[in-house]
Amino acid sequence: AQSVTQLDSQVPVFEEAPVELRCNYSSSVSVYLFWYVQYPNQGLQLLLKYLSGSTLVKGINGFEAEFNKSQTSFHLRKPSVHISDTAEYFCAVISPYNPGGKLIFGQGTELSVKP
Amino acid sequence: DTAVSQTPKYLVTQMGNDKSIKCEQNLGHDTMYWYKQDSKKFLKIMFSYNNKELIINETVPNRFSPKSPDKAHLNLHINSLELGDSAVYFCASSPSDFYEQYFGPGTRLTVT
Lengths: 115, 112
Prior knowledge:
Chain A has strands spanning 3-6, 10-14, 19-21, 23-26, 32-38, 44-50, 56-58, 64-68, 73-78, 87-94, 104-105, 109-114. By secondary structure, chain A is an all-beta fold. In chain A, strands 2, 5, 6, 10, 11 and 12 form a 6-stranded mixed beta sheet that branches. A 4-stranded antiparallel beta sheet of chain A has the order 3-9-8-7, with no helix packed on it. In chain A, strands 1-4 form a two-stranded antiparallel sheet. In chain A, a hairpin with a 4-residue loop joins strand 8 (64-68) and strand 9 (73-78). Chain A is globular and about 45 Å long. Chain B is mainly beta. In chain B, 0% of the residues lie in helices and 56% in strands. In chain B, the strands form 2 sheets. In chain B, strands 2, 4, 5, 6, 9, 10 and 11 form a 7-stranded mixed beta sheet that branches. Chain B is globular. Chain B starts with a strand and ends with a strand. The model of chain B has no long low-confidence stretch (mean pLDDT 92).
């Protein structure tokens, strides 16, 4: 079975500051990793994904994440945030060995960007 | 063009009623899902379908019955609604069952 832990439930940050949202996962088999963003009253939008290859993954809106297998982490970073980045961010994993496409989500991190 | 659409966006109903939520995707994907997001924003899968065949039924009460009339549609019917069913329900789709999933805008269900 897989599980995902997002270490911070809320992250307040000032505009133009860097930010890191932390995600750790647990799995006995290899997994694919994703970050999704949910703006208020909207659905989830894929930010980026790690399937294989380079451990540094670049996504939309200037976000990137680094897969660290030894630390079972997939932290999300942005060098300079904007007010418009205020949203809920979800880390998720899926195992290609489990049929059905069951995405396991973390609890979410609320990013609040202040002027 | 909307990729994954759901109707209705908001649904307010009384306990004991039966209601349906519809989902359609125009991405040509083979797999569709229903997720439930609770009041703490925690997301959990309920069902997944691949080519109209049920693959995952994640210990959801029998009152919830998904129906997939074709590959592009996955509807969710809920019988005898309870207060605890109040949540946001998301439909999603993916090309296969281990690629990224594309989510609809959600249906906020409120049971009074």
